[in-house]
Amino acid sequence: MQICRFWEPKLGPRLGLVFGEEVVDLTAIDPIGCADVSCWLKQPDPVDYLRQLAELAERCRVRILMRELDRKPAPIYRYLLPPLDTQEVWGAGVTYERSRTARMGESRGGKLFYDEVYDAKRPELFFKATPHRTAGPNAPIRVRSDSEWTIPEPEFTVLLTPNLVVAGYTCGNDVSSRDIEGENPLYLPQAKTYLDSCALGPVITLPDSLPDPHNVTVSLAVIRDGMTIFHDETNTNRMKRRIPDLVSYLGQDNAFPEGVFLVTGTGIVPPDEFSLEPDDVVEIAIEGIGTLRNPVVQGTAG
User: Which of 3, 194, 16 is CA-nearest to residue 89?
Assistant: First the structure.
């Protein structure tokens, strides 16, 4: 079972239940409990609540076509929104060996930090984005105006309730300015957190539809001038850390009253000579979720 967040031109943002190539308007069925993602997450059991609504949805079909969602910018793409409204986005770093190697290679003075955190008990966790810094499907991601080395980071992403219970999974893009981060580890917030530095979507897959989040294929493709210039894939079974461990540390002495998204780290890093350019298209595909597609734009100073 999957849900999405979409824009209805006459009514505004809505929650939808995905039925194959169609979407049922959950907000029309329950305007209070499904008013938005935050309202849904505050249900005593959000997943079971949607199971109950699914039977009603079969009889109350307010539909929007979603044909070819994963391959072409069909009409639904004009209406799909990022699957968050008031939630923060946090990130986990150096959870794959490939990420550790890349971070050590880019860093002028922080090689020891990245090597040690990979094996340390405490994971690297950092604040990534607010909703207004987060792009949805087919919306642009940004290269910072003061960066010359920016890469996409495809990441399996977990949606957590205010009680830090897993409510679903989605695709995440932790866009990162490697030259800024590599210059000094203290510049990490500038390398990671800026307008359009994060993308989520296209849908949220509920846990019962993805039984083993630690064995899921993740792929990345970058398209330039109609040609795929980079492609690679990995599997979440290569993660050094497990999701419950990351969630446990995320919740220590912290609270997320609206729920929270956690991007769990990347196992795919393009070669050092690669950098995103304006008009590139980034495609992140995750098994059991779908494909998150975003064009790239150039940031502007000032």
Answer: 194
